[in-house]
Automatic annotation (TrEMBL):
GO terms for cellular component: cytosol. It comes from Sphingomonas taxi. Residues 344-353 have a biased composition (Basic and acidic residues). This is GTP cyclohydrolase-2. It catalyses: GTP + 4 H2O = 2,5-diamino-6-hydroxy-4-(5-phosphoribosylamino)-pyrimidine + formate + 2 phosphate + 3 H(+). The lineage of its organism: Bacteria, Pseudomonadati, Pseudomonadota, Alphaproteobacteria, Sphingomonadales.
Length: 353
């Protein structure tokens, strides 16, 4: 219980620009201040004697070509950039945020060292993603009032904590016979919903897992296929007679809206959707489909016909105990703006198109 409270306080602190510490068993504590939110006052309190050191993710370090200095570094382990006289705050921001890569050629040299607190460092990168922040931190300063354990971060957003909050009739465009069911978990403000369409007929439901995409779902972005996929899924389920659309609050494949838009800025510079995520320091896909399995379980569904082109969704549901009796392709015609995105999904993330 106190672990959950500490993680909530840690996320809040990081987003406000306050320091925290992560204390993994067997390691000294790792004091952290998120680069993205560190204001001058917070920086001054945290760091005495110059800017740094800096903790960045392995993907970001590889992009900056800083991993070759490390003998036999574990590929997933974050990297520490040592403090140096020329490491000022704006240089730290440029090291943290890839959108400045082409505009600001970095002046080093930067010395990197392998992390001495690997468990806490990996947990810090996971916490940045949960907080929706860039995964880059000033480390080893003073002042953290919140200390958390990596295990508490791992327990955060455990799908088992999700419960059914309320339900109501909701006729929607394309499916008038529909009901919305909302789910809540105590440790997250993300409220997932299910749209139950039609009436059960004894067969496994036709199911679509739709991950939130504000730009595509609401604004009609042409950069992805989310909006048309959402509407086509509702139409297909209605035509099938019965099924369930899960609307999962996993914006940007789990990295959050702001980080997804940072990935879009990198795509404007020519990087594809996969490389953009890696350059930012995130996994290619951070979603947890156990949440979807839990929702289906709460709705009494243990076997589904799944509309997707993404084998990871099938595997994720199966791993969480939901039987996928059939994969139903869910592909829509490309447009000039999303053709490359769809090709990247086919060529680099194993989508069956
Ligand atoms: N990080 C990141 N997220 C993106 C990008 N484009 C779309 N998304 C997000 O990707 C998610 C949409 O994925 P899905 O529609 O589930 O697509 P999928 O994983 O390819 O699987 P299927 O459509 O089921 O085949 C949404 O959360 C979008 O916000 C991008 O370029 N970068
Ligand atoms: Zn989208």
């Amino acid at each position: 219980m106190s672990g959950a409270r500490d993680v909530a306080r840690a996320i809040d602190a990081l987003r406000r620009g306050w320091p925290i510490a992560i204390h993994a068993p067997g390691e000294p504590p790792l004091p952290l201040l998120a680069v993205e939110t560190a204001d001058p006052c917070g920086r001054e309190t945290f760091m005495t004697g110059g800017v740094g050191p800096l903790l960045i993710s392995d993907g970001r370090a590889a992009t900056l070509k800083l991993t070759n200095q490390l003998a036999a570094a574990d590929p997933d382990t974050p990297v520490v950039i040592e403090a140096a006289p020329w490491l000022d705050f704006s240089t730290a921001v440029a090291l943290a945020d890839p959108q400045f890569d082409l505009a600001t050629p970095l002046k080093g040299p930067f010395r990197t060292t392998a992390v001495t607190r690997p468990a806490a460092s990996l947990a810090a990168i996971r916490l940045a993603r949960i907080a929706g922040l860039l995964p880059a931190f000033f480390i080893d300063g003073s002042g953290p009032e919140v200390t958390i354990a990596p295990a508490a971060i791992d327990a955060h957003q455990d799908a088992r904590a999700l419960h059914l909050a309320t339900r109501a009739r909701l006729p929607v465009d394309g499916a008038e016979d529909a009901e919305i069911v909302a789910f809540r978990a105590p440790d997250s403000s993300d409220e997932h919903v299910a749209l139950l369409i039609g009436q059960p007929d004894g067969n496994p439901p036709l199911v679509r897992l739709h991950s939130e995409c504000l730009t595509g779902d609401v604004l009609g972005s042409l950069k992805c296929d989310c909006g048309p996929q959402l509407r086509a899924a509702i139409a297909a389920i209605a035509a099938n007679g019965w099924g369930i659309l899960l609307y999962l609050r996993q914006e940007g494949r789990g990295i959050g809206l702001v980080n997804k838009l940072r990935a879009y800025a990198l795509q404007d510079q020519g990087f594809d959707t996969v490389d953009a995520n890696v350059r930012l320091g995130f996994a290619i896909d951070s979603r947890d489909f156990g949440v979807a399995a839990r929702m289906l379980d709460l709705l009494g569904q243990r076997a589904v016909r799944l509309m997707t082109n993404n084998p990871a969704k099938v595997a994720g549901l199966e791993a969480a105990g939901v039987s996928v009796v059939e994969r139903v392709p869910h592909q829509l015609p490309p447009n000039p703006h999303n053709a490359r995105y769809l090709a990247t999904k086919r060529d680099r993330t194993g989508h069956q198109l």
